[in-house]
Design a protein that fits this description.
The protein contains 9 helices and 11 strands. With 358 residues, the chain is of the alpha+beta class. The chain folds into 2 domains: 106 residues, Methane Monooxygenase Hydroxylase, Chain G, domain 1 (Up-down Bundle); 240 residues, Alpha-Beta Plaits, CATH 3.30.70.1660. The chain is globular.
Length: 358
């Protein structure tokens, strides 16, 4: 009896620590404020912004409700522990509580300034020609499956198909609670070793792809980064299309160049030019933030994990499909021979190990 009560009191203390660490009282205040914004008669005038706020409200409601259910269930177990006839049920219920608490404890690793933001992910083909382009499409599918499992939204912002197969590059936004925090450490070079499906001799081929992960940032998030209209050069073109009724009749896609830095971004996912302009500005803002982070990296070592630049020299993970099967993270040492599961979006073990190192 006393053993169970000790376990439950320990769990109760851990839940209180998580509550403080994840600032649930602040999240309740945020939810209340957002619900007041929704009640405004002008709320739906900017539908894109309204949609994002509704997603945030939904995520907050779910997280708060799940945590409060955890607290309630633990309180019920504390009451059951006082009754001898229920002792047999406690052991399995405590295990369930511990598993649910562990999911919240993972979020305590996400303490970066922008960890709660949506993520903008870019994947670029490296060495390997058509093999590398196919590798980009495989990685893209891997992240799509990861997002599906978490019920996160994905919006393709820009993509460039390969000449023969795969993708030269793809840029997409992931909308979900702490999407950037979870995925920021996926930035870097991903290496694939396999038998080539594009070679009649089935020779072993090594391919590389670069993954970049940035937070989706708005002007209010970066008051110290100013984007002057005179520094921008806009180009408009017809978005790529598969033909038929969806053929683009007007130039809705945009290419935005930032003259001082030479940064160029494109956006063509939306049907209206103005929406693509907004997306391009957000992409540029994230790129400018990343550039500033790189410039001040040496002076921000104490903020380890807040941003890690993705470059071709930062190989983070190796995926070997031939002559043996192995996925290994070169930073944490985590590895598995179940390559099919990893490429189908089972990335939690790798992501959690990297978060624990921060």
């Amino acid at each position: 009896m006393r053993e169970f009560q000790t376990k439950l009191k320990r769990l109760s203390g851990q839940i209180e620590e998580v509550k403080k660490s994840l600032r649930f009282d602040s999240k309740k205040d945020e939810l209340k404020s957002l619900e007041e914004v929704v009640a405004s008669p002008t709320f739906w005038q900017d539908q894109e912004k309204a949609k994002e706020l509704m997603q945030r409200i939904g995520a907050l409601r779910e997280e708060i409700a799940t945590f409060e259910k955890l607290q309630s269930d633990l309180s019920s177990l504390l009451e059951l522990a006082e009754e001898k006839e229920f002792i047999g049920e406690l052991d399995s219920e405590i295990i369930k509580i511990e598993a649910r608490l562990k999911e919240f404890q993972k979020k305590t690793y996400l303490s970066g300034v922008y960890d709660s933001k949506n993520a903008i992910v870019s994947i670029h083909a490296g060495q390997g020609g058509v093999e590398a382009m196919d590798w980009v499409s495989i990685l893209f599918r891997m992240y799509l499956r990861f997002c599906e499992k978490r019920k996160w939204g994905v919006q393709i912002l820009d993509e460039t198909p390969g000449e023969e197969a795969g993708l030269k590059s793809v840029v997409f936004k992931i909308s979900g609670m702490c999407a950037y925090g979870y995925l920021k450490n996926e930035a870097g070079t991903h290496r694939l070793v396999r038998q080539s499906p594009f070679n009649a001799d089935r020779l072993r081929q090594t391919s590389f792809a670069l993954v970049e992960v940035l937070p989706e940032l708005e002007e209010v998030d970066l008051p110290d980064i100013k984007i002057n209209e005179d520094d921008l050069e806009w180009q408009f073109f017809r978005a790529s299309s598969q033909g038929g009724q969806n053929v683009q009749k007007v130039s809705t896609a945009v290419r935005l160049s930032h003259k001082p830095t030479g940064i160029v971004v494109t956006a063509q996912s939306e049907r209206f030019q103005e929406q693509n302009r907004k997306i391009a500005l957000n992409l540029l803002r994230a790129k400018l933030w990343a550039r500033k982070q790189e410039e001040t990296q040496k002076t921000k070592r104490l903020l380890k994990g807040e941003y890690r630049p993705a470059t071709w020299g930062t190989q983070i993970r190796s995926y070997v499909l031939h002559p043996y099967k192995m996925v290994k993270d070169l930073r944490t040492g985590v590895e598995t021979s179940n390559t099919e599961a990893v490429l189908d979006g089972e990335l939690d073990e790798f992501i959690e190990a990297e978060l624990r190192m921060l």
